[in-house]
Model the fold of this input.
Amino acid sequence: MFKKITIENFRGIKDLTIEDFGKVNLFVGKNNSCKTSVLEALFICTHPKSPFEYLSTNFMRGLVYLDTERRLGERSLPAEFNYESLFYNLDINNKISLEFTAFDGKKVKMISKPLINSVIEDGSLKEIITALETSIIYDEKEPLIVKYPSDQANSQALFSRVYISPFKAVLEKEYDNITKQNNKEKVVNILKQIDPSISSFEALTTRFSILIKKDNIKNLVPLKGFGDGINKIFNIACSIYGNELLEKGILLIDEIENGLHYTAQEKLWNWLFEIAEEKNIQIFATTHSIDTVRAFTKVAKDKEEKDIRLFRLEKYDDEIIETKYNYENLETAVEEMNLDPR
Done:
């Protein structure tokens, strides 16, 4: 699990260090304060040996269309589309640096740079990025070099992880795991906290989609026919209960408040605190909603969850100011924040 991270020249972050992470961590700030970029940096650091992780963050943002069989390892899209967006101010001359310390004392530093080749396009010579090279230093030892797309080794991650983006849908594999592990009732129980009439759910096998059974409706209802709140809760629950490797891992949730009324957010946080303890996982989430901060604070105080952190991020030109709140001063956070409540 993460204790500290330093991020340089990644996305909108020029230089940022965040330390003293807790079991459950919430990042709050206005739009473009780089909350998602911090989540993505943590995601990349869970699997430093994989040459694919940087590009995965583009897929999760919806920046790149992913068709594994046809596109993986091919320059089928403009190279700038794949790589430049990873660098601060789109400046590929500055190397990306991600450095973290885990609670077990492990230290890892990743330094990434683009590899540029000259190619002929439309009859003219152009310099384009054709690969990303990452140097990985473990505990200040000799660096290991990996490249995307030439290196496709699927080495073991340091931490198991699940990343829930606003675009994420339930995966067929997650549904299968829930069924095999007899966890459907657990998913239904969290859905019942939002809508008590929900009694079950099934998958449409002809083309994978989820159908919900409600006590007051005869026919099954497509999940997509429900509001954003139910879809959000269902995706989070399936990501947790449908991932058998998440024990002692990392759960990352971007824009956790999407589609949720503030009363539902309290129920969600109550469940997430219990899940963090039950599965021994570390949770990182982002929000720009003051209602989410209030729900997080209330549940943490009601349950006396002391291993929590709230990080407020504010961006001024090239600088990001980080303010940390712990259990003792958590209630002052709402008073000090000048955020749009919706």
Remarks:
- The chain has ten helices and 15 strands.
- Residues 1-160+248-342 form a domain with the Rossmann fold fold (CATH 3.40.50).
- Residues 32 and 315 are 8 Å apart (CA to CA).
- The radius of gyration is 21 Å.
